[in-house]
Predict the structure.
Amino acid sequence: AEYKADVKKKLEEKKAADAKNIKEDQVIEKIMEEATMDIPEAMIKTQQRQLADDFAQRIQMQGLNIEQYFQFTGLNAETFMEQLKPQAEKRIKSRLVLEAVVEAEKIQVTEEDFEKEYEKIAEMYQMEAAKVKEMLGEHGKGEVEKDIAVQKALEFVVSNAKEK
């Protein structure tokens, strides 16, 4: 009974998280439809490389390397990167839109926000929050601040979105 309750709770949490992610995606999609922006090709290429690196790390955890993946799928590095381009553009656009919301709404990051984020990172890497804070240093703190602000902007637009 305890196991069943735990499984049920985890399924409900996953369902709620999936619903939240879908709503966030829909809101961002709608905002991006309205936004016009020119994205430099270099920015897209950098994002494509980031996505490719992330993908390579994920499949490596499953025991494959990228060359093996290319053999199985018949892709090569060039076509693989080209397939990542739309996702890279979408990721950049959504980040730029949310950064604009941060500015327009004057979203601030508090010391409490930093502490929560350090705790979250520490838990993910099974470290102490103080060690995470020390490792990130001032430059890392600036990046964490941007990420927190963007997350707050996402929460802001989702909570203020009106369904049609």
Notes: Helices lie at 2-34, 41-61, 66-73, 77-104, 111-125, 129-160.
